[in-house]
Design a protein that fits this description.
Helix content is 13%, strand content 45%. It has 2 domains: 172 residues, no CATH class; 121 residues, no CATH class. Strand 12 and strand 13 form a beta hairpin. Strands 1, 6, 7, 8, 9, 12, 13, 14, 15 and 16 form a 10-stranded mixed beta sheet that branches. A 4-stranded antiparallel beta sheet has the order 2-3-4-5, covered by helices on one side. The protein is mainly β.
Length: 308
């Protein structure tokens, strides 16, 4: 009887995972570009120091559900792996190193690495899809934010994937790291009014009108880039100046209004965007009220999940 019940729950989990995980990875991934905001040369500044990072980093602990001692079973398609953090996870910033374990040979394979900053905001979103990369240890998470979806790079996917089920709400800490950022360059555009707009404005169709872009919130995927890359614009609502230890440069964490939803009332979505000195195109530091735009990479990690 007990074994029959276990099989039923196991089958249910398998079906849920089939709807959650997408293993058909046809996307090209540009992980080297994630270091461009910090370094001039990835090879000289990062790869040449890889042995040192591997030897002095700490193992990142996987997420532990505080509400239950039971953990979901592993999937037969998954490969064992772990994440290292340099210098250590308790630091304010550093490098993440993803490693795979070849059980038969009792060997470790270096898979990938990424920069991480202990900044960002926590959001609770329903999980829509997990896009697993061909290396089996990295993934994009797509989450439903109500009126659209967002994709971000899951820094701890290889150690936390067993928790993920479609349509379940999770709390993630998400940060944008800017590839480029500046004050808004184009503040208005001239357009020919359509017949419907002209009728509303009581003017002749085709009449040219200027459309103001100042303060416009935008967060859209970039064609031919990766799923976690976006073009953004919006007003800065908060600024924190920091120093990035691993690249020894000044940066600003800018809370920026990048999405607005208007239903019964207007709802604004702010996201923290890290802008380094290297990518900021202006002479003066960004400040609250600045209208900025640029391109950004989204990274995140699981911080909590609902009680079951």
């Amino acid at each position: 009887m007990f074994e029959s019940i276990k099989k039923i729950f196991s089958s249910k989990l398998d079906n849920e995972r089939a709807l959650t995980f997408d293993y058909a990875d046809e996307q090209e991934h540009f992980v080297g570009s994630h270091f461009n905001p910090f370094f001039e040369s990835v090879e000289a500044d990062i790869l040449d120091n890889l042995p040192h990072y591997m030897e002095t980093s700490r193992v990142v602990l996987p997420y532990k559900n505080a509400f239950s001692d039971e953990e979901p079973k592993e999937d037969v398609r998954w490969q064992k792996g772990f994440v290292l953090s340099y210098p250590e996870e308790e630091s304010s910033d550093g490098l993440g190193l993803i490693c795979g374990v070849v059980s038969e040979e009792k060997a470790i394979t270096f898979i990938s690495m990424f920069p991480w900053i202990d900044k960002g905001q926590e959001y609770t979103f329903a999980l829509e899809k997990v896009y697993v990369w061909s290396n089996a240890h990295e993934a994009h998470l797509e989450v439903d934010i109500g009126f659209t979806t967002l994709c971000f790079y899951d820094m701890h996917y290889t150690i936390n994937k067993k928790w993920y089920i479609k349509d379940t709400s999770y709390t993630f800490k998400i940060l944008g790291i800017a590839y480029s950022a500046s004050l808004r360059k184009v503040t208005e555009i001239e357009v020919d009014t359509s017949e419907e707009v002209a009728q509303f404005l009581e003017i002749e169709p085709g009449t040219k009108r200027n459309v103001q872009l100042t303060g416009m919130s935008m967060f859209i995927p970039i064609d031919s880039w990766d799923r976690d890359d976006y073009a953004f614009s919006g007003l800065i609502t908060n600024v924190e100046e920091i120093v990035i230890a691993f690249s020894n440069q000044k940066a600003w964490v800018c809370s920026t209004t990048i999405l607005k939803e208007v239903v019964a009332e207007e709802i604004e979505y702010d996201i923290d965007i890290l802008i380094t000195e290297k990518v900021w195109e202006e002479d003066e530091a960004p400040k609250v009220g600045d209208d900025i735009e640029g391109r950004v990479w989204l990274q995140g990690k699981l911080t909590s999940m609902p009680m079951k």
